[in-house]
Amino acid sequence: MAQITESIDVAVPVRTAYNQWTQFEEFPQFMEGVESVQQLDDTHLRWVAEIGNKREEWDAEITEQNPDERVAWAARGGKGNAGVVTFHRLNDDETRVTVQMDWEPEGVVENVGTALGFDDRQVSKDLDRFKELIESRGQESGAWRGEV
Q1: Alpha-carbon span 25 to 147, nearest angstrom
Q2: Which of the listed ranges 43-57, 60-74, 103-117 does the model predict with the highest average pLDDT?
Q3: Is residue 12 one of the residues assigned to a domain?
Q4: 0.90 cut: is pTM over it?
Q5: What long-range pairs does 37-42 form, CB within 8 A, spacing at least 24?
Q6: How many domains does the chain have?
Q7: Residue 22, number of CB atoms within 10 A of its CB
Q8: At what angle do helices 118-137 and 107-115 cross, to 10 degrees?
Q9: Confidence bin at 140 (pLDDT 50/70/90)
Q10: Among candidates 21, 4, 148, 42, which has minimal Cα distance to 97?
Q11: Domain presence at residue 104
Q12: Three-class SS string for 34-70?
C-alpha cells in the first residue's frame, strides 16, 4: 500500500476551501488524469480516471464528512484507495488543505512510479491547481455542508 501526504496553504477562508472541495464533480478541473466524478448520492461517487496510461473506473464512499474540518473516503470496488482531506484555519483568510491517501499500486508502471515519488508529485500538483482555482475565483462554486 502506497501512502501520500501533501499540504498546501490557500488564501481563502476555511469555509470557502471546504465548500469548494465538496464540489466533487468539479475535481477534473484541477486533478490531472481525472476524467469525471459523478456524485450518485450524498455519500457515493463514481470515478473515471486515466492512471498509468490505463483507464480506471471505481466507486467511492464518503465515510466521514465534517463541515470545515474533513472529508474521508474509501473505494468500494475497482481502484483500491482511501484517505482524508483536512482543512485547518490558519487565520480568517488562509487555510491549510492536507491530503492523506493510501492506494494500492498495480503492475510494474504504477509500482515504479510510486517508488520514484510520482504519485506524491501528482497530488502536490493537483493541490497547486486547486489553490489556483479557488484563489482566482475568490469564492466557492457551491457547497454541500451535510455531515456523514
Answers
A1: 18
A2: 60-74
A3: yes
A4: yes
A5: 42/144, 42/146, 42/148
A6: 1
A7: 19
A8: 70
A9: very high
A10: 21
A11: yes
A12: EEEEEEEECCEEEEEEEECCEEEEEEEEEEEEECCCE
